Structure prediction request, 209 residues.
Amino acid sequence: MFTGIVEELGEVTAVEQVPNAARLTLHGPVVTADAGHGDSIAVSGVCLTVVDVAGSEFTVDVVHETLQRSSLAKVNVGDRVNLERATPAGGRLGGHIMQGHVDGTGVYLSRDDQGLTRFALPPAVSRYVVEKGSIAIDGISLTVAAIDGDEMSVALIPTTLELTTLGRNEPGDLVNLEVDVIAKYVEKLALPHFANTGENGVSGTKEQV
Prediction:
């Protein structure tokens, strides 16, 4: 589990294509300080398993499913990524509960002078996003400032802009999105009851909940 408090900006130092996967090597002196084989590190919001550590670099394998759902399919040598180690039991929950299981990608649209930043969301993700709720963008725990259809905005403080990739995004860049997992569980548990009772005019089809 993660909390969305980025520990450092890492850098991709190698990308190797392997059958149905990619092998990435990343530089991250903070997260490698106590990392070992089998540990979990979130790379721009994607939970990945460490397969090797050498000095301040670590290597991970990214399977086809992850490449299909996240922006890591387009990562190149020299790209910067947000890094966070898994939260230890008893550690501070500084952001919100995150699994590192990306639900899809959004598109960075714009940022104004006050740091209000807009993103376009796929419908499968926007259905779970609510004003003042939590969302993970590239592994950063953020609060939704506003939601308008399939667009969302968040307010970014200078520290976030300085210490994460969101301060380096350009319009059109893809970002990884993870919604609050509680919303998905609530929907799945409630859906059969709506279908059985027809309450509130809900027919039980997923698109109408």
